[in-house]
Amino acid sequence: IQPTSSNGDRSLAFYLTEDMVECLGELSIPAWNIFMEAACMAIADKCPAVRQYASSTIGSGAKQSIFSQIAPVAASQLAKLLQKHGERHRRRRAVNSEAKQIALSVDAAIRALGMICEHQEANVGGDSTQAWRMWLQHLPLRYDEDE
Predict the structure, then answer these.
(1) What mean pLDDT do residues 18-37 have?
(2) Which listed residue, of 24, 46, 108, 128, carries a Cα 20 to 30 Å from 88's Cα?
(3) Prediction pTM value
(4) Where do the structural domains in the chain lie, given as residue ranges?
């Protein structure tokens, strides 16, 4: 999870944290101080796989009420990612493996923003209508067949 670790190690770590948060739910909360802030910051990472799994961790965490503490920062990070990659994601088809990985990271960000809107609407910060609008503009998910 450390920024100095390799991209492969970091993406694997966030893959595991996402599964932990998704499967254990509120039982995972005691471990959040180890990875949740790092996941929030990793949404802006250069590596698309790290962004994908960090966004998924954030989306899974949004279901818990304690997530309200980090919801405004997470929503802001996701919005920045969608502003940067969202339009290209909607208009172009991913043809090579790098483009597909970027597309999967955008899909994960869209899903995470939707989870924050659904479960943390009052904690998004500012006007939640903008967050809902951004989420709706970027639907449907195009590449993540699991979601």
Answers:
(1) 96
(2) 128
(3) 0.88
(4) 7-138
